[in-house]
Amino acid sequence: MHNAQLVTEAWQDAFPILAEYYRQYGEFSLGGIPFSEMHEVIPRLLLGITDGSVRIKNIVDTMKNFVRADKANLDGKVYINKVIVDSVLILNNQINKYTEKFYLDFGKDLPPVKGSAQKLEQVIINLIMNSLQALPNKKCGIWISTSSNKDSGCVIISIKDEGCGMSRKVLERIMEPFFSTKLNTGGTGLGLYISQSIVKEHRGSMEFESEHAKGTTVVIKLPSS
Q1: Domain coordinates of the chain in residue numbers?
Q2: Secondary structure E strands in 100-214
Q3: Whole-prediction pTM value?
Q4: What is the pLDDT of residues 181-216, one digit of tens each?
Q5: Using CB atoms within 10 A as the burial measure, which of 7, 78, 105, 225 is most buried?
């Protein structure tokens, strides 16, 4: 995070000099990108590095919190629709990489839930990434919807994908720490374990329905504050 800030400041200092060179001598490339595009590309890349660093820090902090059983950050008023919007913005490049069909359907006037927006954002990011990586091609889609149930007093999040799905045997083990079908490609087997732990911290539940080759749906229910 410190290095990203330093590079940002260096770019801000270098840009006027490079712009003057461009004015005098015309187009040139940096890293294979025309300088005329760099004033938009570089800030966007640096922002991506910063956001990614923050997400990594948040994940590490969450794992530390499990060890300390720290409940101090669960007293905030969280609006789930905003959590999902923020998560989608962070994952925008990945979403465009994996699918052409990504849909959001937000319930109106949802009551807030009590907890940590930061931690719930980690859950949504992890679940969206799992769905994206399960899609066989970009024509397959993902649907995210929110709603509330006045009878149960819960806010409900549904994430449905047209991915490869899971067998019953895999489905029974997905919440186990260090179990992953992606260990050979860098998976740690901690994503769903951490997500489930966060949801439980918020007194909620997370349930999966999946069928091999037909997709997966995960439903999160959180008590409203």
Answers
A1: 2-67, 72-223
A2: 101-105, 113-115, 141-149, 154-161, 205-211
A3: 0.67
A4: 665 555 556 789 889 999 999 999 999 999 988 999
A5: 78
